[in-house]
Design brief:
This protein is an alpha/beta fold. Helix content is 31%, strand content 16%. It has a 7-stranded mixed sheet. Strand 6 and strand 7 form a beta hairpin.
């Protein structure tokens, strides 16, 4: 998983409320057995026309917002099904942070596990960012996770995040990698547990 410390890039506005995971990653892109090529599926029904050509009216296809690094999103972003493909696709598309007011719980957890930062701000801060995001000449921002702030134009917008989530994203580690930091303690507990309860330890039969 990629580390996240300080990242600069363009922010694109997608302020519609309740954008669900079916919109983010349509069902036809869930058939693969791996994560390859999911960037094509992100917002597929909105990014592309019926003939397969890019939709010129979709924000991420417009000059000045192409290859955006951040999305400014409406409330309850990522609601609907729990498909993790939606987050995988956003990451492959180059999205590193989502900035909004509220996020669906499972989607938010999936973002955490895959290196996408979710930031919840109050309405005045979101309104200020929206003014910048809708103009191609002012939509460049920087998100600093080490200082927990967004630098946009001449403003510094602080945000809060749990310390555990912050440390894991900065280190680029998922839950498994983070747990392995405690491997000696885990192994010690396991040894003590089985020493007191030897009947619980499964005996491995020798191979013939």
């Amino acid at each position: 998983m990629d580390t996240f410390k300080q990242i600069s890039g363009r922010i694109a506005p997608m302020l519609e409320p309740n954008i669900d995971t079916d919109v983010i990653m349509p069902k036809q892109f869930l058939k693969g057995i791996d994560r390859h090529g999911l960037n094509k599926g992100v917002f597929f029904d909105r990014r592309f026309l019926g003939n397969g050509q890019p939709n010129p009216d979709f924000i991420l296809n417009m000059p000045g917002w192409q290859e955006a690094t951040f999305l400014l999103v409406g409330p309850n972003f990522g609601c609907g099904s729990s498909r993790e493909h939606a987050v995988w696709g956003l990451k492959q598309l180059g999205i590193r942070a989502l900035i909004g007011s509220t996020f669906a719980g499972i989607f938010d957890d999936n973002c955490q596990r895959n290196g996408i930062l979710t930031i919840s701000l109050d309405e005045p801060a979101l309104a200020y960012l929206a003014q910048l995001a809708v103009k191609a000449d002012s939509n460049l921002i920087a998100v600093s996770l080490d200082r927990c702030e967004i630098v946009a134009a001449d403003e510094k917008i602080p945000f809060t995040i749990s310390e555990l989530k912050r440390e894991m994203l900065m280190a680029g580690e998922d839950a498994i990698a983070w747990t392995l930091h405690y491997l000696p303690e885990i192994e010690q507990f396991e040894a003590q547990h089985y020493a007191c309860r030897p009947w619980l330890k499964r005996q491995v039969s020798p191979r013939v």
